[in-house]
Design a protein that fits this description.
- With 521 residues, the chain is mainly α.
- It contains 22 helices and no strands.
- It has helices spanning 3-34, 38-76, 79-106, 108-115, 123-136, 139-155, 160-164, 167-180, 189-212, 226-241, 244-257, 263-298, 302-329, 331-339, 346-361, 363-377, 383-409, 416-440, 449-472, 475-480, 483-507, 512-516.
- α10 packs parallel to α17 (383-409).
- The longest helix is centred in the first third of the chain and has 39 residues, at 38-76.
- The chain is globular.
Amino acid sequence: MPVSLFRSSSTVGGMTLLSRVLGFLRDVLLAVLFGASAGMDAFLVAFKIPNFMRRLFAEGAFAQSFVPVLSQAHERESLAEVRDLIGVVSGTLMAVLALITAFGVLAAPLWIWVFAPGFADEPAKFQSAADMLRITFPYLFFISLTALAGSVLNTMGRFALPAFAPALLNISLIFCALFLAPRMDQPVMALAIGVLIAGLAQLALQLPTVARLGLLPRPRWGWSDSRVQRILRLMLPILFGSSVAQIALLLDTVLASLLVTGSVSWLYYSDRLMEFPLGVFTIAIATVILPRLSRLHTQEAGAEFGQTVNWALRMVALICVPAALGLFFLAGPLLITLFNYAAFGESDVLMSRWSLMAYAFGLLGFSLVKVLIPAYFARQDTRTPVRYGIIALSVTMLFNLSMVGLALHLEWHAPHALIALGTSLGSFLHAGLLLHGIRAQASFSPDSRWRAFLLRIGLAGATMALTVTLTAGDLELWFELGAGARVTRLFVVMSVAAVTYFGSLWLMGLRGRDLAQPVTN
Protein backbone atom coordinates (compact mmCIF):
# COMPACT_ATOMS: atom_id res chain seq x y z
CA MET A 1 0.00 0.00 0.00
CA PRO A 2 1.35 3.43 -0.78
CA VAL A 3 2.41 5.18 2.39
CA SER A 4 0.29 8.20 1.44
CA LEU A 5 -2.87 6.11 1.56
CA PHE A 6 -2.13 4.88 5.07
CA ARG A 7 -1.16 8.35 6.24
CA SER A 8 -4.26 9.92 4.69
CA SER A 9 -6.52 7.23 6.15
CA SER A 10 -4.93 7.75 9.56
CA THR A 11 -5.45 11.52 9.30
CA VAL A 12 -9.10 11.19 8.34
CA GLY A 13 -9.64 8.46 10.91
CA GLY A 14 -8.00 10.49 13.68
CA MET A 15 -10.06 13.59 12.96
CA THR A 16 -13.20 11.52 12.64
CA LEU A 17 -12.37 9.81 15.94
CA LEU A 18 -12.32 13.21 17.61
CA SER A 19 -15.69 14.01 16.06
CA ARG A 20 -17.13 10.66 17.14
CA VAL A 21 -15.93 11.09 20.72
CA LEU A 22 -17.64 14.48 20.80
CA GLY A 23 -20.65 12.77 19.24
CA PHE A 24 -20.74 10.31 22.12
CA LEU A 25 -20.58 13.14 24.62
CA ARG A 26 -23.43 14.78 22.72
CA ASP A 27 -25.54 11.62 22.74
CA VAL A 28 -24.89 10.99 26.42
CA LEU A 29 -26.05 14.53 27.13
CA LEU A 30 -29.15 14.14 24.96
CA ALA A 31 -30.00 10.83 26.63
CA VAL A 32 -29.63 12.37 30.10
CA LEU A 33 -31.63 15.52 29.28
CA PHE A 34 -34.28 14.18 26.90
CA GLY A 35 -34.16 10.36 27.10
CA ALA A 36 -36.41 8.50 24.66
CA SER A 37 -39.24 11.02 24.95
CA ALA A 38 -41.79 12.24 22.42
CA GLY A 39 -39.80 15.48 22.04
CA MET A 40 -36.62 13.56 21.30
CA ASP A 41 -38.44 11.41 18.76
CA ALA A 42 -39.69 14.61 17.08
CA PHE A 43 -36.22 16.19 16.96
CA LEU A 44 -34.60 13.05 15.56
CA VAL A 45 -37.06 12.97 12.67
CA ALA A 46 -36.66 16.73 12.06
CA PHE A 47 -32.89 16.26 11.94
CA LYS A 48 -32.88 13.00 10.02
CA ILE A 49 -34.70 14.41 7.01
CA PRO A 50 -32.11 17.09 6.05
CA ASN A 51 -29.29 14.85 7.30
CA PHE A 52 -30.53 12.04 5.07
CA MET A 53 -30.66 14.40 2.10
CA ARG A 54 -27.17 15.62 2.99
CA ARG A 55 -25.85 12.08 2.72
CA LEU A 56 -27.65 11.65 -0.57
CA PHE A 57 -26.88 14.97 -2.27
CA ALA A 58 -23.71 16.09 -0.54
CA GLU A 59 -21.55 13.21 0.68
CA GLY A 60 -23.28 10.67 -1.50
CA ALA A 61 -24.32 11.54 -5.04
CA PHE A 62 -22.68 14.93 -5.40
CA ALA A 63 -19.29 14.18 -3.86
CA GLN A 64 -18.90 10.84 -5.59
CA SER A 65 -19.77 12.27 -9.00
CA PHE A 66 -17.91 15.56 -8.56
CA VAL A 67 -14.61 14.11 -7.28
CA PRO A 68 -13.88 11.95 -10.38
CA VAL A 69 -14.58 14.90 -12.69
CA LEU A 70 -12.54 17.28 -10.53
CA SER A 71 -9.68 14.76 -10.25
CA GLN A 72 -9.59 14.35 -14.01
CA ALA A 73 -9.53 18.13 -14.47
CA HIS A 74 -6.77 18.45 -11.88
CA GLU A 75 -4.70 15.82 -13.71
CA ARG A 76 -5.17 17.17 -17.23
CA GLU A 77 -6.04 20.88 -17.07
CA SER A 78 -4.63 24.16 -15.73
CA LEU A 79 -5.42 25.70 -12.35
CA ALA A 80 -7.56 28.34 -14.06
CA GLU A 81 -9.68 25.67 -15.73
CA VAL A 82 -10.07 23.80 -12.45
CA ARG A 83 -11.14 27.03 -10.74
CA ASP A 84 -13.65 27.70 -13.51
CA LEU A 85 -15.10 24.20 -13.05
CA ILE A 86 -15.54 24.81 -9.32
CA GLY A 87 -17.19 28.17 -9.99
CA VAL A 88 -19.80 26.84 -12.39
CA VAL A 89 -20.53 23.79 -10.26
CA SER A 90 -20.84 25.77 -7.01
CA GLY A 91 -23.12 28.38 -8.59
CA THR A 92 -25.45 25.76 -10.04
CA LEU A 93 -25.47 23.78 -6.80
CA MET A 94 -26.30 26.86 -4.73
CA ALA A 95 -29.27 27.76 -6.91
CA VAL A 96 -30.71 24.23 -6.82
CA LEU A 97 -30.16 23.95 -3.07
CA ALA A 98 -31.91 27.27 -2.46
CA LEU A 99 -35.04 25.99 -4.21
CA ILE A 100 -34.99 22.66 -2.36
CA THR A 101 -34.46 24.40 0.98
CA ALA A 102 -37.32 26.83 0.40
CA PHE A 103 -39.66 23.97 -0.46
CA GLY A 104 -38.48 22.04 2.60
CA VAL A 105 -39.21 24.93 4.96
CA LEU A 106 -42.61 25.77 3.45
CA ALA A 107 -43.77 22.16 3.23
CA ALA A 108 -42.42 21.00 6.60
CA PRO A 109 -45.66 19.29 7.72
CA LEU A 110 -45.79 17.36 4.45
CA TRP A 111 -42.23 16.08 4.96
CA ILE A 112 -43.09 14.93 8.50
CA TRP A 113 -46.24 13.20 7.27
CA VAL A 114 -44.24 11.35 4.60
CA PHE A 115 -41.27 10.32 6.75
CA ALA A 116 -43.00 9.84 10.11
CA PRO A 117 -46.66 9.02 9.36
CA GLY A 118 -47.14 7.58 12.83
CA PHE A 119 -46.75 11.06 14.32
CA ALA A 120 -50.08 12.09 12.79
CA ASP A 121 -51.84 10.27 15.62
CA GLU A 122 -50.12 12.55 18.15
CA PRO A 123 -50.79 16.17 17.09
CA ALA A 124 -48.36 17.71 19.61
CA LYS A 125 -45.48 15.51 18.49
CA PHE A 126 -46.34 16.11 14.82
CA GLN A 127 -46.42 19.90 15.23
CA SER A 128 -43.20 19.92 17.23
CA ALA A 129 -41.42 17.92 14.53
CA ALA A 130 -42.70 20.25 11.79
CA ASP A 131 -41.62 23.36 13.70
CA MET A 132 -38.13 21.96 14.23
CA LEU A 133 -37.84 20.86 10.61
CA ARG A 134 -38.36 24.46 9.49
CA ILE A 135 -35.23 25.31 11.48
CA THR A 136 -33.12 22.28 10.55
CA PHE A 137 -33.89 22.08 6.83
CA PRO A 138 -31.57 24.99 5.84
CA TYR A 139 -28.76 22.84 7.26
CA LEU A 140 -28.95 20.98 3.93
CA PHE A 141 -27.97 24.15 2.01
CA PHE A 142 -24.90 24.90 4.09
CA ILE A 143 -23.69 21.34 4.57
CA SER A 144 -23.94 20.58 0.85
CA LEU A 145 -21.69 23.54 0.09
CA THR A 146 -19.43 22.27 2.86
CA ALA A 147 -19.26 18.93 1.04
CA LEU A 148 -18.26 20.74 -2.17
CA ALA A 149 -15.45 22.53 -0.34
CA GLY A 150 -14.42 19.25 1.28
CA SER A 151 -14.33 17.51 -2.10
CA VAL A 152 -12.00 20.20 -3.42
CA LEU A 153 -9.70 19.86 -0.40
CA ASN A 154 -9.68 16.04 -0.56
CA THR A 155 -8.83 16.11 -4.27
CA MET A 156 -5.91 18.40 -3.46
CA GLY A 157 -4.72 15.99 -0.76
CA ARG A 158 -5.99 18.08 2.18
CA PHE A 159 -7.94 15.56 4.26
CA ALA A 160 -7.67 16.84 7.84
CA LEU A 161 -9.96 19.87 7.72
CA PRO A 162 -12.93 18.19 5.99
CA ALA A 163 -12.61 15.29 8.43
CA PHE A 164 -12.64 17.63 11.43
CA ALA A 165 -15.59 19.75 10.24
CA PRO A 166 -18.33 17.34 11.49
CA ALA A 167 -17.04 17.85 15.04
CA LEU A 168 -18.58 21.33 14.90
CA LEU A 169 -22.05 19.77 14.74
CA ASN A 170 -21.43 17.95 18.00
CA ILE A 171 -19.93 21.04 19.65
CA SER A 172 -22.91 23.15 18.56
CA LEU A 173 -25.48 20.64 19.84
CA ILE A 174 -23.68 20.25 23.16
CA PHE A 175 -23.54 24.03 23.63
CA CYS A 176 -27.21 24.53 22.73
CA ALA A 177 -28.36 21.64 24.93
CA LEU A 178 -26.48 22.98 27.94
CA PHE A 179 -26.96 26.72 27.62
CA LEU A 180 -29.82 27.45 25.23
CA ALA A 181 -32.30 24.68 26.07
CA PRO A 182 -32.89 25.77 29.70
CA ARG A 183 -33.90 29.23 28.46
CA MET A 184 -36.55 28.01 26.01
CA ASP A 185 -40.21 27.12 26.55
CA GLN A 186 -39.60 23.96 24.49
CA PRO A 187 -36.07 22.95 25.47
CA VAL A 188 -35.75 20.39 22.66
CA MET A 189 -36.15 23.24 20.13
CA ALA A 190 -32.64 24.37 21.07
CA LEU A 191 -31.27 21.27 19.35
CA ALA A 192 -32.80 22.32 16.03
CA ILE A 193 -31.13 25.72 16.36
CA GLY A 194 -27.85 23.94 17.10
CA VAL A 195 -28.10 22.02 13.83
CA LEU A 196 -28.52 25.24 11.84
CA ILE A 197 -25.56 26.91 13.58
CA ALA A 198 -23.42 23.85 12.84
CA GLY A 199 -24.12 24.03 9.10
CA LEU A 200 -22.92 27.63 8.96
CA ALA A 201 -19.85 26.89 11.08
CA GLN A 202 -18.70 23.91 8.99
CA LEU A 203 -18.84 25.89 5.76
CA ALA A 204 -17.03 28.87 7.30
CA LEU A 205 -14.27 26.57 8.57
CA GLN A 206 -13.24 25.29 5.13
CA LEU A 207 -13.66 28.28 2.84
CA PRO A 208 -10.43 30.09 3.91
CA THR A 209 -8.29 27.06 3.03
CA VAL A 210 -10.01 26.67 -0.33
CA ALA A 211 -9.30 30.37 -0.96
CA ARG A 212 -5.62 29.96 -0.05
CA LEU A 213 -5.34 27.21 -2.67
CA GLY A 214 -6.63 29.69 -5.24
CA LEU A 215 -9.78 27.62 -5.80
CA LEU A 216 -12.53 29.92 -4.51
CA PRO A 217 -14.01 31.51 -7.65
CA ARG A 218 -17.17 33.57 -7.95
CA PRO A 219 -20.11 31.11 -8.22
CA ARG A 220 -22.09 31.35 -11.44
CA TRP A 221 -25.07 29.56 -12.91
CA GLY A 222 -24.13 26.91 -15.44
CA TRP A 223 -26.83 24.30 -15.82
CA SER A 224 -26.11 23.91 -19.54
CA ASP A 225 -22.33 23.70 -19.08
CA SER A 226 -21.08 20.37 -20.42
CA ARG A 227 -19.11 19.66 -17.23
CA VAL A 228 -22.15 20.28 -15.04
CA GLN A 229 -24.24 18.05 -17.29
CA ARG A 230 -21.61 15.35 -17.02
CA ILE A 231 -21.71 15.53 -13.23
CA LEU A 232 -25.50 15.43 -13.31
CA ARG A 233 -25.49 12.35 -15.52
CA LEU A 234 -23.23 10.65 -13.00
CA MET A 235 -25.10 12.06 -10.04
CA LEU A 236 -28.65 11.02 -10.82
CA PRO A 237 -28.06 7.26 -10.58
CA ILE A 238 -25.73 7.75 -7.62
CA LEU A 239 -28.55 9.52 -5.76
CA PHE A 240 -29.86 6.04 -5.17
CA GLY A 241 -26.91 3.74 -5.61
CA SER A 242 -24.51 5.37 -3.14
CA SER A 243 -27.05 5.81 -0.39
CA VAL A 244 -28.96 2.55 -0.19
CA ALA A 245 -27.94 2.11 3.44
CA GLN A 246 -29.16 5.63 4.27
CA ILE A 247 -32.45 5.09 2.46
CA ALA A 248 -32.93 1.87 4.38
CA LEU A 249 -32.20 3.60 7.69
CA LEU A 250 -34.64 6.40 6.90
CA LEU A 251 -37.32 3.90 5.96
CA ASP A 252 -36.56 2.25 9.29
CA THR A 253 -37.59 5.55 10.88
CA VAL A 254 -40.86 5.52 8.95
CA LEU A 255 -41.65 2.06 10.31
CA ALA A 256 -40.47 2.96 13.81
CA SER A 257 -42.77 5.99 13.88
CA LEU A 258 -45.68 3.55 13.62
CA LEU A 259 -44.53 1.70 16.75
CA VAL A 260 -44.64 2.76 20.40
CA THR A 261 -43.12 6.05 21.53
CA GLY A 262 -39.40 5.59 22.05
CA SER A 263 -38.85 3.29 19.07
CA VAL A 264 -37.27 6.04 16.97
CA SER A 265 -34.94 6.96 19.84
CA TRP A 266 -33.98 3.34 20.62
CA LEU A 267 -32.96 2.82 17.01
CA TYR A 268 -31.11 6.13 17.00
CA TYR A 269 -28.96 5.41 20.06
CA SER A 270 -28.05 1.92 18.87
CA ASP A 271 -27.35 3.19 15.35
CA ARG A 272 -25.04 5.85 16.79
CA LEU A 273 -22.91 3.17 18.44
CA MET A 274 -22.81 1.14 15.23
CA GLU A 275 -21.85 4.28 13.29
CA PHE A 276 -18.77 4.85 15.46
CA PRO A 277 -16.46 2.26 13.86
CA LEU A 278 -18.17 2.83 10.52
CA GLY A 279 -17.39 6.54 10.63
CA VAL A 280 -13.96 6.46 12.21
CA PHE A 281 -12.48 3.74 10.07
CA THR A 282 -14.56 2.66 7.08
CA ILE A 283 -15.58 6.10 5.87
CA ALA A 284 -12.00 7.27 6.32
CA ILE A 285 -10.83 4.58 3.91
CA ALA A 286 -13.65 5.25 1.45
CA THR A 287 -12.85 8.98 1.54
CA VAL A 288 -9.17 8.61 0.69
CA ILE A 289 -9.46 5.86 -1.91
CA LEU A 290 -12.00 7.66 -4.13
CA PRO A 291 -9.61 10.39 -5.39
CA ARG A 292 -6.84 7.81 -5.76
CA LEU A 293 -9.04 5.35 -7.64
CA SER A 294 -10.24 8.17 -9.88
CA ARG A 295 -6.65 9.12 -10.75
CA LEU A 296 -5.64 5.49 -11.35
CA HIS A 297 -8.60 4.99 -13.66
CA THR A 298 -7.69 8.16 -15.56
CA GLN A 299 -4.10 6.87 -15.85
CA GLU A 300 -5.39 3.42 -16.92
CA ALA A 301 -3.38 1.83 -14.10
CA GLY A 302 -5.53 -1.28 -13.71
CA ALA A 303 -3.15 -3.28 -11.49
CA GLU A 304 -2.73 -0.45 -8.98
CA PHE A 305 -6.51 0.13 -9.05
CA GLY A 306 -7.13 -3.47 -8.05
CA GLN A 307 -4.45 -3.38 -5.37
CA THR A 308 -6.05 -0.34 -3.77
CA VAL A 309 -9.46 -2.02 -3.63
CA ASN A 310 -7.85 -5.16 -2.28
CA TRP A 311 -6.09 -3.27 0.48
CA ALA A 312 -9.29 -1.44 1.46
CA LEU A 313 -11.22 -4.72 1.81
CA ARG A 314 -8.47 -6.30 3.90
CA MET A 315 -8.37 -3.36 6.28
CA VAL A 316 -12.16 -3.36 6.62
CA ALA A 317 -12.18 -7.06 7.49
CA LEU A 318 -9.33 -6.60 9.98
CA ILE A 319 -11.12 -3.91 12.00
CA CYS A 320 -14.83 -4.45 11.46
CA VAL A 321 -14.94 -8.10 12.53
CA PRO A 322 -13.77 -7.38 16.11
CA ALA A 323 -15.78 -4.14 16.19
CA ALA A 324 -18.96 -6.03 15.27
CA LEU A 325 -18.28 -8.73 17.85
CA GLY A 326 -17.61 -6.10 20.49
CA LEU A 327 -20.84 -4.24 19.75
CA PHE A 328 -22.81 -7.50 19.85
CA PHE A 329 -21.41 -8.97 23.07
CA LEU A 330 -21.02 -5.64 24.86
CA ALA A 331 -24.27 -4.06 23.68
CA GLY A 332 -25.73 -3.87 27.18
CA PRO A 333 -22.59 -2.60 28.98
CA LEU A 334 -21.98 0.02 26.27
CA LEU A 335 -25.52 1.39 26.48
CA ILE A 336 -25.51 1.35 30.28
CA THR A 337 -22.14 3.09 30.54
CA LEU A 338 -22.92 5.77 27.98
CA PHE A 339 -26.62 6.49 28.33
CA ASN A 340 -28.20 4.95 31.46
CA TYR A 341 -28.58 8.14 33.49
CA ALA A 342 -31.53 10.37 34.46
CA ALA A 343 -34.13 10.30 31.65
CA PHE A 344 -32.68 7.21 29.93
CA GLY A 345 -33.97 4.36 32.09
CA GLU A 346 -33.29 0.65 32.40
CA SER A 347 -36.11 -0.23 30.00
CA ASP A 348 -34.60 2.10 27.38
CA VAL A 349 -31.29 0.26 27.73
CA LEU A 350 -32.90 -3.14 27.27
CA MET A 351 -34.88 -2.03 24.22
CA SER A 352 -31.88 -0.29 22.63
CA ARG A 353 -29.78 -3.39 23.32
CA TRP A 354 -31.95 -5.48 21.00
CA SER A 355 -31.50 -3.10 18.07
CA LEU A 356 -27.77 -2.58 18.72
CA MET A 357 -27.13 -6.32 18.57
CA ALA A 358 -29.05 -6.45 15.30
CA TYR A 359 -27.10 -3.50 13.85
CA ALA A 360 -23.79 -5.02 15.02
CA PHE A 361 -24.51 -8.05 12.87
CA GLY A 362 -24.54 -5.81 9.78
CA LEU A 363 -21.47 -3.66 10.54
CA LEU A 364 -19.22 -5.63 8.20
CA GLY A 365 -21.84 -5.51 5.44
CA PHE A 366 -22.28 -1.73 5.77
CA SER A 367 -18.50 -1.29 5.70
CA LEU A 368 -17.98 -3.42 2.62
CA VAL A 369 -20.61 -1.41 0.77
CA LYS A 370 -18.87 1.85 1.73
CA VAL A 371 -15.50 0.81 0.28
CA LEU A 372 -16.80 -1.05 -2.78
CA ILE A 373 -19.04 1.69 -4.18
CA PRO A 374 -16.12 4.13 -4.81
CA ALA A 375 -14.52 1.47 -7.02
CA TYR A 376 -17.52 1.78 -9.36
CA PHE A 377 -17.86 5.56 -9.22
CA ALA A 378 -14.14 6.11 -9.83
CA ARG A 379 -14.67 4.25 -13.12
CA GLN A 380 -17.75 6.41 -13.71
CA ASP A 381 -19.93 3.29 -13.67
CA THR A 382 -23.15 4.37 -11.98
CA ARG A 383 -25.60 1.90 -13.48
CA THR A 384 -24.27 -1.24 -11.83
CA PRO A 385 -24.41 -0.11 -8.17
CA VAL A 386 -27.86 1.39 -8.76
CA ARG A 387 -29.14 -1.96 -9.99
CA TYR A 388 -27.65 -3.76 -7.04
CA GLY A 389 -28.95 -1.12 -4.65
CA ILE A 390 -32.51 -1.49 -5.88
CA ILE A 391 -32.35 -5.26 -5.37
CA ALA A 392 -30.92 -4.95 -1.85
CA LEU A 393 -33.33 -2.22 -0.76
CA SER A 394 -36.35 -4.11 -2.09
CA VAL A 395 -35.41 -7.28 -0.23
CA THR A 396 -34.67 -5.31 2.94
CA MET A 397 -37.99 -3.51 2.98
CA LEU A 398 -39.92 -6.71 2.23
CA PHE A 399 -38.22 -8.40 5.18
CA ASN A 400 -38.76 -5.41 7.50
CA LEU A 401 -42.44 -5.07 6.69
CA SER A 402 -43.17 -8.76 7.02
CA MET A 403 -41.13 -9.28 10.20
CA VAL A 404 -42.46 -6.20 11.98
CA GLY A 405 -45.98 -7.20 11.03
CA LEU A 406 -45.40 -10.69 12.39
CA ALA A 407 -43.85 -9.33 15.60
CA LEU A 408 -46.85 -7.06 16.18
CA HIS A 409 -49.22 -9.95 15.52
CA LEU A 410 -47.36 -12.11 18.04
CA GLU A 411 -47.16 -9.12 20.42
CA TRP A 412 -43.36 -9.34 20.76
CA HIS A 413 -42.11 -6.51 22.95
CA ALA A 414 -39.23 -5.31 20.69
CA PRO A 415 -40.41 -5.21 17.06
CA HIS A 416 -38.05 -2.30 16.35
CA ALA A 417 -35.11 -4.71 16.59
CA LEU A 418 -36.36 -6.59 13.53
CA ILE A 419 -36.10 -3.33 11.57
CA ALA A 420 -32.40 -3.17 12.45
CA LEU A 421 -31.94 -6.87 11.65
CA GLY A 422 -33.52 -6.52 8.22
CA THR A 423 -31.31 -3.54 7.43
CA SER A 424 -28.24 -5.55 8.45
CA LEU A 425 -29.19 -8.52 6.29
CA GLY A 426 -29.78 -6.18 3.38
CA SER A 427 -26.29 -4.72 3.76
CA PHE A 428 -24.72 -8.15 3.25
CA LEU A 429 -26.83 -8.78 0.17
CA HIS A 430 -25.80 -5.38 -1.20
CA ALA A 431 -22.11 -6.00 -0.44
CA GLY A 432 -22.23 -9.46 -2.03
CA LEU A 433 -23.70 -8.08 -5.23
CA LEU A 434 -21.12 -5.27 -5.38
CA LEU A 435 -18.26 -7.68 -4.78
CA HIS A 436 -19.52 -10.00 -7.49
CA GLY A 437 -19.75 -7.09 -9.90
CA ILE A 438 -16.28 -5.70 -9.21
CA ARG A 439 -14.74 -9.16 -9.54
CA ALA A 440 -16.41 -9.50 -12.92
CA GLN A 441 -14.50 -6.39 -13.98
CA ALA A 442 -10.78 -7.12 -14.40
CA SER A 443 -9.86 -4.42 -11.84
CA PHE A 444 -10.10 -6.67 -8.77
CA SER A 445 -9.23 -10.28 -8.18
CA PRO A 446 -8.45 -11.66 -4.69
CA ASP A 447 -5.71 -14.27 -4.53
CA SER A 448 -5.11 -17.36 -2.38
CA ARG A 449 -3.65 -15.39 0.54
CA TRP A 450 -7.17 -14.18 1.36
CA ARG A 451 -8.11 -17.60 2.71
CA ALA A 452 -5.30 -17.59 5.28
CA PHE A 453 -6.04 -13.95 6.14
CA LEU A 454 -9.74 -14.60 6.79
CA LEU A 455 -9.00 -17.78 8.75
CA ARG A 456 -6.72 -15.81 11.09
CA ILE A 457 -9.35 -13.11 11.57
CA GLY A 458 -12.07 -15.70 12.23
CA LEU A 459 -10.03 -17.53 14.87
CA ALA A 460 -8.90 -14.30 16.52
CA GLY A 461 -12.46 -12.99 16.54
CA ALA A 462 -13.80 -16.18 18.14
CA THR A 463 -11.11 -16.00 20.82
CA MET A 464 -11.97 -12.36 21.49
CA ALA A 465 -15.71 -13.11 21.71
CA LEU A 466 -15.08 -15.83 24.30
CA THR A 467 -12.85 -13.49 26.30
CA VAL A 468 -15.49 -10.72 26.30
CA THR A 469 -18.22 -13.14 27.40
CA LEU A 470 -16.12 -14.35 30.35
CA THR A 471 -14.91 -10.93 31.50
CA ALA A 472 -17.97 -8.71 30.98
CA GLY A 473 -20.17 -10.31 33.64
CA ASP A 474 -23.94 -10.14 34.12
CA LEU A 475 -25.90 -7.13 32.94
CA GLU A 476 -27.42 -6.59 36.40
CA LEU A 477 -23.94 -5.88 37.76
CA TRP A 478 -23.50 -3.05 35.27
CA PHE A 479 -26.79 -1.44 36.31
CA GLU A 480 -25.64 -1.43 39.95
CA LEU A 481 -22.27 0.22 39.25
CA GLY A 482 -21.71 3.98 39.42
CA ALA A 483 -20.62 5.99 36.39
CA GLY A 484 -16.91 5.87 37.21
CA ALA A 485 -16.94 2.13 37.90
CA ARG A 486 -18.83 1.51 34.66
CA VAL A 487 -16.28 3.43 32.60
CA THR A 488 -13.35 1.69 34.31
CA ARG A 489 -14.84 -1.77 33.89
CA LEU A 490 -15.74 -1.15 30.24
CA PHE A 491 -12.24 0.14 29.52
CA VAL A 492 -10.69 -2.95 31.09
CA VAL A 493 -12.96 -5.36 29.19
CA MET A 494 -12.37 -3.59 25.87
CA SER A 495 -8.60 -3.45 26.45
CA VAL A 496 -8.46 -7.16 27.24
CA ALA A 497 -10.55 -7.85 24.12
CA ALA A 498 -8.24 -5.78 21.91
CA VAL A 499 -5.11 -7.42 23.30
CA THR A 500 -6.69 -10.85 22.82
CA TYR A 501 -7.68 -10.16 19.22
CA PHE A 502 -4.47 -8.56 17.98
CA GLY A 503 -2.34 -10.84 20.12
CA SER A 504 -4.01 -13.85 18.55
CA LEU A 505 -3.34 -12.46 15.08
CA TRP A 506 0.31 -11.91 15.98
CA LEU A 507 0.65 -15.45 17.32
CA MET A 508 -0.81 -16.74 14.07
CA GLY A 509 1.88 -14.91 12.11
CA LEU A 510 0.13 -11.72 10.96
CA ARG A 511 2.56 -8.79 10.89
CA GLY A 512 2.33 -5.11 10.08
CA ARG A 513 4.06 -5.57 6.75
CA ASP A 514 1.19 -7.88 5.69
CA LEU A 515 -1.18 -4.94 6.07
CA ALA A 516 1.10 -2.25 4.68
CA GLN A 517 1.21 -3.88 1.26
CA PRO A 518 -1.84 -4.72 -0.84
CA VAL A 519 -2.37 -8.24 -2.07
CA THR A 520 -1.01 -8.29 -5.60
CA ASN A 521 -3.04 -9.67 -8.44
